[in-house]
Amino acid sequence: MAEVIQFPKENPTYIIKTFIESFGLEYPKDYEKFAEVMGRFDDGGTIGEFFDALVEAFPDKKESIMDFPMYTEIDGELVRIRFPEKD
User: With a threshold of 0.85, does the pTM exceed it?
Assistant: First the structure.
């Protein structure tokens, strides 16, 4: 089962820092480039496109980005998923 992380509501920087670091990136070093990638998806896009854009922006962090923990429910059971890698 996934670990539940409680975010302190009074510290939005902690939320941003935790989210960026969950992709294996460094805060504040990678913040500006990460925010730029996020901004490209303000009007929508798929999660796959988002991950592709992150890998393009941070190619040296591809493995940690692609290892971001994501879950879905299948037949009532929580299952971790991974994106297939492109050639």
Answer: no
